[in-house]
Design a protein that fits this description.
It is a single chain. The protein has eleven helices and no strands. The relative contact order is 0.07.
């Protein structure tokens, strides 16, 4: 009778014990995650070797690079999975996305005429991939930061974490500039050049639009890249300021490659923000260099 009552009691209390185990696991997982996050922002590796010494050691012992490659593979796999999921979700709204991308063209998406049986399928896939990549871009940057962060100091990790939203804003800002400023100016010129009638196709139009938006978004990341390089000591503000003429020439060549037209108006639309971003980069490089030198002086005073 006692064993029977014990079994009945265990059956009755089974849901409560199950919930209790789940709560304990949750708090254990939360405590472990909190400890890892705290250690990530408080502990740093004690490797004082320079970049040159690290490269020399890697060349002498290539096997030392294997753990880093495995870690990189893990981060890349997670980033690709997120992009795949977001691409699949974007496919559900691809008609609305394509209609929105066709807004800079007079007449909208109704002006596009396909002449190949598979043209619409390829166009839909391209637009879907761009939407998935754009939505997954913040997570891609986050995974890159997670891969690089263990080799950085705690201060650099925090700066890198705050740089993620800045990178997102710059990328989206570049795409918005291409969509709202550049395309409405370039498309009428292209469609009415020399008075010739142009019948745009879905594949050519969306390939053109997505490439322009993507590369303009990438170029808007330039100030952030310069700031990070200056923080690491690879770039100096004085060098950037003294070479501004050469930089404008390089920007002109890049703008010519990105600009869909050959007229100076649209090329100027691309060059103007890039030149402004370059001079902003000089100021950011100066701030990063000054902060790095101040930190080195503080460390030198501590060692005395």
């Amino acid at each position: 009778m006692r064993n029977f009552l014990r079994k009945v009691w265990r059956v009755i209390t089974a849901p409560v014990r199950f919930i209790g185990r789940m709560i304990n696991r949750f708090f254990s997982y939360f405590e472990h995650a909190t400890h890892n996050v705290s250690a990530f922002f408080t502990e740093e590796e004690q490797d004082e070797s320079s970049i040159g010494d690290s490269l020399a050691a890697t060349i002498e012992n290539p096997r030392a690079l294997l753990p880093h490659l495995l870690a990189l593979r893990k981060h890349l796999v997670r980033a690709v999975l997120v992009v795949v999921v977001l691409t699949a979700l974007s496919f559900l709204f691809v008609q609305q996305i394509m209609g929105y991308l066709a807004m800079p063209m007079e007449g909208g998406i109704n002006e596009l005429v396909a002449i190949d049986p598979t043209e619409n399928i390829g166009t839909v896939m391209r637009v879907t991939l761009l939407a998935g990549f754009t939505l997954g871009f913040p997570y891609i940057i986050f995974e890159i930061w997670l891969f690089i962060a263990p080799a950085l100091s705690v201060n650099s990790r925090v700066k890198g974490l705050f740089a993620i939203p800045v990178a997102i804003i710059l990328f989206v800002g570049g795409m918005a500039f291409a969509f709202y400023v550049m395309l409405p100016t370039a498309l009428p010129f292209l469609f009415n050049f020399m008075g010739l009638t142009t019948q745009p196709r879905p594949s050519s139009y969306f390939n053109f639009v997505t490439l322009i938006m993507f590369w303009i978004g990438v170029t808007f990341e330039f100030p952030l890249v310069i700031y990070l390089l200056a923080s690491l000591g690879f770039v100096k503000a004085k060098t950037l300021s003294s070479q501004w003429r050469l930089a404008i020439v390089i920007i002109g060549v890049m703008a010519a490659g990105i600009t869909p037209t050959v007229d100076p108006i649209n090329m100027g639309l691309v060059m103007a923000p890039m030149i402004v971003l370059y001079f902003i980069s000089i100021g950011l490089a100066y701030l990063a260099e000054r902060g790095r030198l101040n930190k080195q002086q503080e460390e030198a005073l501590k060692d005395i």
